[in-house]
Amino acid sequence: MNNVRASVHRCCTQGSVPGEDWLSDKAAALLLSCGPSPIHDLERTLSMLIADCHCGRVRIEVAGPPEFLVDCNCSICRRYGALWAFYALEGSRIEGTVEHAEGYIWGEKTISTFHCRHCGCVTHWEPLKPKANAKFAINARLLEPGAIQGVRVRRFDGAESWAYLD
Question: Which partner from 6, 27, 88, 154 sits 20 to 30 angstroms from 162, CA to CA?
Fold first, then answer.
């Protein structure tokens, strides 16, 4: 990322775009259309991960790999087989939820867990009443495997103790 940052800085201060070999088309387009300070937007674009359902109608963009993944054994999570990755709602983007996803609310009615209406993939959950700095979770199994390779998996006992087991 430091090489990218240096190249972006040269581009912004010298008014030229470096060779195509170092920059994706998406990032290059962002550079060419940017306002006065594209560095933060470019870094964010390059570090975003995309989780999408099997048919691609529900798509979630999050900022980089999660700190850890959660394998929960509560009655619903064990049936879903999801590995949850937590992110701030602010700064993430969820597309296709309104027209292609359906929420399921159960238990204490604090979250809604979404699945795609077309392919059935469980995509994410969101709080029903988000507060400041609210988080949501995506099903990390919808990310490309390399995006979460090496990320620690924490086991959470949602069935009984409501505590991490590690």
Answer: 88
